[in-house]
Design brief:
single chain; 125 residues; mainly alpha
Amino acid sequence: RQYQRRVRGVYFMLGFQVQEVVNPFLNIRWYLLECKMKDSTLYPINGVCILLSFFFSRVLFGSFVLYRFIVYLPSEVYSSTKLMVGSVGAVCFQVLQYYWFTMVFSMVFKYLFAKKDKSGQPKRE
């Protein structure tokens, strides 16, 4: 029984760690901004990569892992304060993922479909 609990814990923690696949794209975005390369071709491509990786790893896969976490731990959650706090934290974390995705989506959408100036670059406001 103790072994099964540990294996499940590792499974769920790895599931939440997979969501970090977005970080290399976020670091590339930071690098492009620091190098003043926002007008380069790589910047919008990286933005789309952030959007897609965020959606698939954090929104879809994160929701799947949270669902499995809640479904497979219901009897144990209510008997342990640590598991209850962890469950509430996992739900809050996933709600944040949905909120952040709306922000990422709106930023990418604004950049890709913003009005362009005469040189073809998005207008800065």
